[in-house]
Amino acid sequence: MRMVDLIIKKRDGHELSNEEIKFWIDGYVKGEIPDYQSSAMCMAIFFKGMTKREIATLTDYMEHSGEVIDLSAISGIKVDKHSTGGVGDKTSLVLGPMVAAAGGKLAKMSGRGLGHTGGTLDKLESIPHMSIAKTKEEMIDQVNKIGLAIIGQTSSLVPADKKLYALRDVTGTVESIPLIAASVMSKKLASGTDAILLDVTVGEGAFMKNMDSARELARTMVGIGTSLGRDTVAVLSDMSEPLGFAVGNNLEVKEAIASLHGKGPKDLMDLCYTSGSIMLLQAHVCSTLDEAREKLHEVIENGEAFKKLCLMVEAQGGDVSYIKDPDKFEVSKNIIEIRSDFDGYIREINALEIGVSAMKLGAGRETLDDVIDMSAGIVLARKIGAKISKGDLLCTVYTNKSEEEYLPVLEEIKHAYVFTNEEVEILPVIREIIRE
User: Fold this and answer.
1) What tens digit of pLDDT does each residue of 240-278 get?
2) Is 161 labeled as catalytic in the residue annotation?
């Protein structure tokens, strides 16, 4: 078998056999197939696509290219959640404790943020002394004890994806749905969970900008999970404006804490209640969505969800006093208010522009080596649809950058807002739910 023949076969629009896909992935991971041939294959897939069978096979071989975590030592059905990324997406910090408090078992391996999309690990590490570097055995023990762990992915997990993702990033082949789906699902499947809830974000702040592409990605990933024996459901959630109000690491942790005290933004809580209800059904903790939603409301109201966050932080070495008293978190030395010059309604808050601006203020990283300022970010005062008058607060900016550095960013933040004289329809955060 020769790699060049497989490239030509896919270039001409034909299906690759299971053996041919295995030959490619195994050879690439071992270094026997060079980058230039793998990049040619990725480009062929970009233009010609893959069948459901090909995508499932590619995912399966990528999953098994390294360590596959065995979570059978955790009692009960293990559930996991993955978001395709966005701005202000602190969902895992709220949803995880809610699901665990309601009786679910959530063992989550997460990644870091890059560009305008914040990573869950970075947000957790804004809590002093919080450790995300746990062994598989420590994670299993923690989930058995408290029902919840969110840790970093091990270096031995899915090496095929690490190599392919780096290659796709520099060869213009990132935006291929078969390759995106295989990348996401290979990592989730290798993490050993029984059931997967996918949050596929759609809008300006998301990877998928429109409903058609988001729906296609969601259906592809649900199909992969189902064909490989995992209960997989996807929600399509709106990311045309930031989720919640806070964008930035410790700012989002503070909002997550407020949410677990029952004071969360409506869009964030709607997403958590809907996603959490599905996860409790997947975990066989509840038999109906209504029962599950009621249980989730209960653990917010009685404080059990907040207690789970405290237990997780404590179990992972974090300083719980910051969770119990969020005023202890570091605050940026520069705090700037941006106010409205317009009377009317907010029609748009471009999530991408807000996310990129927050990154420039220090809240994110453009390269994996960049150091994040945990206190930097933006906190919105009003969302799409709000009626405003001149002088009303639109958002507050937090940064340790110099005035020379942050002044141009303030103009970019103002540019993210679009106003109108007409009332604006507020779309629900959950756009669609996709099952096999």
Assistant:
1) 999 999 999 999 999 999 999 999 999 999 999 999 999
2) yes
pLDDT in tens, 190-205: 999 999 999 999 999 8
Superfamily per CATH, domain 331-420 = Pyrimidine nucleoside phosphorylase-like, C-terminal domain (3.90.1170.30)
Q: Which of 161, 194, 199, 238 is catalytic?
A: 161
The CATH number of the structural domain formed by 78-324 is 3.40.1030.10
373 assigned to active site:
no
> Active site includes 168?
yes
CATH class, domain 3-49, is: mainly alpha
Catalytic residue among 105, 134, 163, 168: 168
d(CA 184, CA 208): 14
Q: Which of 82, 116, 134, 295 is catalytic?
A: 82
- Boundaries of every domain in the chain: 3-49, 78-324, 331-420
Question: Does 78-324 match 3-49 at the fold level?
Answer: no
Q: In one letter, which amino acid is 431?
A: R
Phi-psi label, residue 96: left if phi above 0, alpha if psi -120 to 50, beta otherwise: alpha
Half-sphere exposure of 156 (CA within 13 A, CB side): 6
Check 183, 186, 277, 332 and give the catalytic one: 183
80 in active site: no
